[in-house]
């Protein structure tokens, strides 16, 4: 099986690449802007015809799209998150219509939901801010296409290698900077989020990539339980041996203020893929702090 992975150098993409390479009989080809990629492509600017020609040469059985942006301004967000999936779908329709497409969406597409409730895939989508809106546009492009496609709607990833533009990654950087004492300044941490280990996400992608039959258009990939964001801060402080103070008086994000609760119903992923999260949040935080990707979750 030949698998084309787009966005292999990103946080989710790197873990996904490791998991896909371990699949029996898999031949992994990476695609992206980085030197050394088997397919040099930038979905934000790619021409559908040129991408189609490249796909005809590669003849992938499955295409996994981990390419995307969480920041960098409106042009970057719309280019990678909205235009990119639409271009990819158009190229696949012409050049590889029988390939499976696995696209990574985001919980930001949902927006707010009532406290104490769970979001299943039929829940209303009301994104707060441009990031969620652009991710939703990408999901719609994939879900409305005639391709054999599935969108894995990923909730809050955590675990080894979390980038500095995520709360866990930023907290690790701050804790290393101040040492065992001092003050770590953050925004309000009272919001509840559904955290899922990045290695569990990669496992879900691998299961979707090789699944023998068509899958539902959208599947939630999450831990299945809302936790106070404060647990991430206190958990990292504990594994770091931090004895200073966490100050929540800093400026918080617009989305945290507008979306105080998110919890996923992950029953559909269990039924369709046989997938459930396997790595506890405490292990995700310990591995993030140590920098070791350690044991993958079991199947």
UniProtKB/TrEMBL annotation:
<comment type="similarity">
    <text>Belongs to the NAD(P)-dependent epimerase/dehydratase family.</text>
</comment>
<dbReference type="Pfam" id="PF01370">
    <property type="entry name" value="Epimerase"/>
</dbReference>
<dbReference type="InterPro" id="IPR036291">
    <property type="entry name" value="NAD(P)-bd_dom_sf"/>
</dbReference>
<feature type="domain" description="NAD-dependent epimerase/dehydratase">
    <location>
        <begin position="3"/>
        <end position="222"/>
    </location>
</feature>
<protein>
    <submittedName>
        <fullName>NAD(P)-dependent oxidoreductase</fullName>
    </submittedName>
</protein>
<dbReference type="InterPro" id="IPR001509">
    <property type="entry name" value="Epimerase_deHydtase"/>
</dbReference>
